[in-house]
Amino acid sequence: MDKKDWDYVHDVASEAEWTPGLRDIFEYRDLGIKDGTKGDYVAHIVKANGKKSKDEVQHWHVHDCNFQFVFVLKGWAKFEYEGQGVRKIQKGDCILQIPLLKHRELDCSDDFEVLEIVSPADFETRIVDAPAEEAAD
Fold first, then answer.
1. Domains of the chain: which residue ranges?
2. What are the percentages of helix, strand and coil residues in the chain, rounded to 5?
3. Strand pairing category for 61-64 and 67-74
C-alpha cells in the first residue's frame, strides 16, 4: 500500500465555521480534507443560506476536476446534465459526476444541503456553451 504524506484530520462539528464560497446562495463548511490531503481532495458541506440571487453557475458550466462526489443531506435540487437530461436529486441521493460533464442548476429547496468531495482540491469552474442537443432546442 502506497502511504501518502497526508495528515490525520478530525473536524469538530461544534467548532464548524461557515464561509462564503463559489456560490452566493450557499455557505460552505470546509471539513479539513484539503489540508489533510495536501490539496489532493477537498470535502465540504454546502448548504442554502436563504439568498435568492442568480449567478453564473446557473448557466451551463464544467468543473476542471478528476473526481466529484455529491451526497444530498437535506432538501432537493434540480440539475440538467449533458446527455442525462433534468434530474432531481434529494435527501439520500448520491451522484458521481464524471469529469468535465456540462451541467447547470435549475432550482433548489430552501434547506438544500450536500456533502461534496472533489479532486483536486483547487479546481476551476468554467462557464461553457450549452451542449449541442440543448442548443438545438
1. 19-135
2. 10, 40, 50
3. unpaired
Which residues are paired to 97 by β-bridges?
A: none
Q: 3-class SS at 83?
A: coil
State the number of CA atoms in the 13 A half-sphere of 126 facing the CB.
13
* pTM of the predicted protein model: 0.88
> Hey, what CATH class is 19-135 in?
mainly beta
Q: How far apart are the first and last CA of the chain?
A: 50
Per-residue pLDDT tens over the stretch 89-120: 999 999 999 999 999 999 899 999 999 999 99
Length of the chain as a residue count:
137
Residues sharing a CB contact under 8 Å with residue 77, sequence separation 6 or more, in sequence order: 88, 89, 105, 106, 107, 108, 109, 112
